[in-house]
Design goal:
This protein is α/β, with parallel strands linked by helices. The chain has helices at about 20-25, 30-40, 65-75, 95-105, 125, 130-135, 140-150, 165-180, 195-215, 225-230, 250-255, 260-270, 275-280, 295-305, 325-335, 355-365, 385-400, and strands at about 5-15, 40-50, 55-60, 80-85, 90, 110, 185-190, 215-220, 235-240, 240-245, 285-290, 310-315, 320-325, 350, 370-375, 380-385. The protein contains 17 helices and 16 strands.
């Protein structure tokens, strides 16, 4: 995995004497004190992280946490006060004007929430606008813009005016404009936030589809956890100008760095409402009855269902453990007889129907197999997989938002 963007100890101070504010920060004063004493605002404070080539990296945080400031320093739409921004190893923070223009025209393009379309220009001209700025001749820019429009599903609309299109379609034009430049890096600033939820999901899918075909490095600002979890390979969470955590959605969900991060997930966290029993499903997983089913039959069953693991129940449907194809094969090879119970995978802990989702979170994320859920008298109710867990979180959040 190669690193596309690396930021190092990046700061932005808004105000007339940024160096004074930096000095005060280094002396241990906090953002609020500095603002009170000097009127200057610390927009971004000591941010460091890397963005890998080809990933969707989401920058998430509440309003005013510094997302836009941080991302605008990547192409120097905002001048960093101190620190470094390396793109392909070149420091954008100290780049001369000529290189900076090249960087903005070829390497990094930006898609905005407001679409920023020109009302008097056609869809094609709008999509070609970035290329025009880059000095590309008319014929090639129209060809490339047509291709980009096709990529976002707008073929046939090239002669329309922006106001003839729906909000979702206008955002597609904005995206096409970003794509037409064929940049390595796409910065997307709350690009889908103005869209209604259904169209927004559609655009997220579209982006994932485009990304599957042509892996760009995307830095995506969002204040929405659903969106971040849905599209982000990794997420950086910002609070008060600082980057407080960087990780995959699962890492952050499993191990939030502090209460602020936890609070984000509390919004989507249905752990107080749903119990494990509510979301257990009797799907997909092959159940091997303990009595009367020896290792050969069990192995056959797993193989025919294309499963690596099976859930072992006794004749009363009480859960006894989990067995893998490997352990079954070993058991057969060693001539260990019919009884498969000694081959159980010891760590296969089960959840109880009344447990909260929070209780089982560590198990769900740590194990390669779905977690079995048991009801009264240890009877097997079904399983919860990691995906199902995440989907439930997301669905609940959406319902909460719509309520
Ligand atoms: N040009 C500016 N002059 C002074 N302060 C600014 C300027 N731009 C941003 N700030 C301040 O810097 C901090 C970070 O703002 P920023 O816009 O980066 O946050 P954000 O997380 O993108 O918020 P939002 O989601 O509302 O866009 C805020 O306190 C903001 O008021």
């Amino acid at each position: 995995m190669s690193v596309k963007i690396k930021i190092e100890n990046l700061y932005k101070v808004f105000g007339p004497q940024p160096k004074t504010a930096l000095k005060m920060l280094k002396e241990g004063l906090d953002k609020e004190e500095i603002h009170q004493r000097t009127g200057m605002t610390i927009g971004v404070q000591d941010a460091s992280f890397e963005v890998n080539t080809g990933e969707i990296f989401v920058v998430m945080g509440l309003s005013g946490s510094g997302k836009s400031t941080l991302v605008r320093m990547l192409n120097r739409l905002i001048e960093p006060t101190s620190g470094h921004v390396y793109v392909d190893g070149q420091d954008v923070a100290t780049m001369n004007d000529e290189d900076l223009v090249k960087l903005r025209r070829k390497t990094i393009s930006m898609v905005f929430q407001s679409f920023a379309l020109m009302p008097h220009m056609s869809v094609l001209e709008n999509a070609a606008f970035g290329l025009e700025m880059a000095g590309v001749d008319k014929q090639s820019r129209n060809e490339r813009a047509m291709q980009a429009l096709e990529q976002v599903g707008l073929e046939g609309y090239h002669n329309s005016r922006p106001d003839e299109l729906s909000g979702g379609m206008q955002q597609r034009v904005g995206l096409a404009r970003g794509l037409a430049v064929d940049p390595d890096v796409l910065l997307m600033d709350e690009a889908f936030s103005a869209l209604d939820p259904l169209i927004r999901t559609e655009m997220q899918d579209e982006l994932l589809k485009l990304q599957a075909k042509h892996k760009r490095t995307i830095v995506f600002i969002s204040h929405d956890l659903d969106e971040a979890m849905r599209i982000g390979d990794r997420i950086a969470i910002m609070e008060g100008g600082r980057v407080v955590q960087v990780g995959t959605p699962e890492e952050i969900l499993q191990n939030p760095a502090d209460d602020y991060v936890r609070a984000f997930f509390r919004g989507v966290d249905p752990t107080n409402i749903l119990t494990v029993g509510d979301i257990a499903r009797q799907t997909q997983v092959t159940v091997i009855r303990h009595t009367g089913e020896g290792p050969r039959a069990a192995l056959q069953r797993l193989i025919s269902h294309d499963r690596e693991y099976g859930y072992v129940l006794d004749t009363d449907r009480r859960f006894m453990g989990i067995v893998s194809t490997d352990t079954l094969k070993n058991l057969i090879d060693s001539g260990g007889g019919k009884d498969i119970s000694p081959a159980f995978i010891g760590e296969a802990r089960a959840a109880q129907a009344g447990d909260s989702m929070q209780d089982i979170l560590p198990e769900v994320t740590a194990r390669p197999w779905p977690i079995p859920v048991l009801g009264e008298e240890g009877k097997y109710l079904g399983v919860i997989s990691k995906n199902q867990f995440l989907r439930t979180l997301q669905r609940n959040h959406l319902e909460e938002q719509q309520a």
